[in-house]
Amino acid sequence: xxxxxxxLLGLGLAAACGFRVxxxxxxxxxxxxxxxxxxxxxxxxxxxxSTAALVTFSIATALEIAGYYIPWIDNLLxxxxxxxxxxxxxxVTASSVTEVDPFLRWTLxxxxxxxTAAVFQGITATARQVSSFxxxxxxxxxxxxxxxxGSALLAVMSIVVPILAMLVIVALLYFGVKRLLFRRxxxxx
Length: 189
Fold this sequence. Notes:
The chain has seven helices and no strands. The longest helix is centred in the middle third of the chain and has 34 residues, at 102-135. It has one domain. Helix content is 77%, strand content 0%. The chain has 189 residues and is mostly helical. The protein has helices spanning 2-19, 22-33, 51-67, 73-96, 102-135, 140-160, 162-181. Helix 5 (102-135) packs across helix 7 (162-181). It is globular, with a radius of gyration of 17 Å.
């Protein structure tokens, strides 16, 4: 059962990386330092809880969030964030999946974590493109706020209640895919 929870935790954190790359890493760093067993990191990932990592993730999170509030720069950041989110999804999944064979850990991390982060990053990038096109970029700060808040909320939920986080992820996937990828074209009047 503990293995299942660690997999759900990893996938939840990976989905959060799809919204914002560094927010889940910062929350992981804080949770691993908090004690009381909030987050147990896998072998070789203790560095995530180090002071240097905490400072680095804090600065990176602040810069990432600020960058998404600058019109048109946010679209540029999406191009950089996509491969970065995939790598972050792999790292957070591998670091949270504990007590399994290393081959299984890395297979889950690459396919599950990287794939989940890529899907959510794709959905958010598509939403930003639609917003940029329809509002000239004026609606993008609203999307940036929702993404940052969603990333933080999903990361915390993944650590505290991983089953609920997975239900939220499934709902977001359903809504995101249905709403963004299967939109009907507007009728001409």
